[in-house]
Write a structure and sequence with these properties.
Layout lengths: L3 E4 L7 H6 L12 H6 L3 H4 L4 E5 L5 E10 L13 H14 L6 E9 L8 H15 L4 E6 L12 H5 L11 H8 L3 E14 L1 H8 L7 E3 L8 E4 L4 E14 L1
Parallel strand pairs: 4-5
Antiparallel strand pairs: 1-2, 2-3, 3-4, 5-9, 6-9, 7-8, 8-9
């Protein structure tokens, strides 16, 4: 299979087809309010940081979103515990005040379901790194969502993120892809994404009853969802793993 990787800056007409590409995200993950407010703006406002891969027929099989931001600004300096949500807000705030970015953060790498298992996630990660380097950056950071953590929702992320195989590489497949590209674990983003909703909303997103107080294991969730029927409310606070890629 021959793939061509382009940026939206080069091919702005592909924004629509890119968003039309199917994905395998659990529905509840797409309900993060910060993500909903910012994600769709990335190809428009940061087109040079959005890449997509198409095959010889022109079908988009994967895309990669990243954003530039100022990590060295006053009051920042370290990668935030609020991870994905925080870096999105920083990037767009920096753009509004026309601050010069010093770091690129990965936001997402998505592969079409029928193209998974072909190594496209690693290809897009390499393309993202190369793209940042070409624009003069010396590092990429990534609030990584470990791909197999959902199988162990009660394992603390700190423990899971530092679990390694006999060869010294991370146990988790997606963390391993990043490590093979040269990244290392920086810290845990303990509240990288927050999804809150009524019990009716959670039932619609998951098909689960959400009728008892306590922690609910939801397919695809990295940690349990906290359910409080007396408040008609449930909340999911997802931890991610900050990884740092020197370029």
């Amino acid at each position: 299979m021959e793939l061509k990787v382009s940026s939206i800056a080069e091919r702005p007409e592909m924004i629509g087809p890119m968003f039309d590409m199917p994905d395998s995200w659990p529905e509840f993950v797409t309900q993060d309010l910060v993500g909903n407010a910012h994600y769709g703006r990335i190809p428009v406002e940061f087109p040079q940081y959005v890449l997509f891969a198409e095959d010889e027929r022109g079908e988009i099989l994967a895309h990669a979103f990243s954003v530039p931001f100022v990590l060295g600004a006053e009051g920042r300096g370290e990668l935030p515990a609020r991870g994905w949500d925080q870096v999105l807000m920083w990037a767009f705030a920096d753009r509004r005040r026309e601050a010069r970015p010093d770091t690129v953060s990965a936001i997402s790498i998505v592969v079409a379901p029928h193209a998974q298992g072909l190594g496209l996630s690693g290809l897009m990660l390499t393309a993202m790194r190369d793209n940042a380097r070409a624009q003069g950056f010396t590092e990429v950071v990534a609030p990584v969502r470990p791909s197999a953590k959902h199988r162990e929702p009660h394992t603390p992320m700190e423990e899971y993120a530092h679990r390694v195989r006999e060869d010294g590489l991370p146990y988790d497949p997606w963390l391993r892809v990043h490590a093979r590209a040269g990244a290392s674990v920086e810290r845990i983003a303990s509240a990288s994404m927050t999804v809150a909703g009524s019990l009716a909303e959670w039932r619609g997103w998951t098909g689960l009853p959400f009728d008892a107080r306590g922690d609910v294991e939801v397919p695809g969730a990295l940690v349990p969802v906290r359910c409080e029927p007396e408040r008609d409310h449930a909340v999911y606070v997802e931890p991610n793993v900050w990884m740092r890629h020197p370029l």
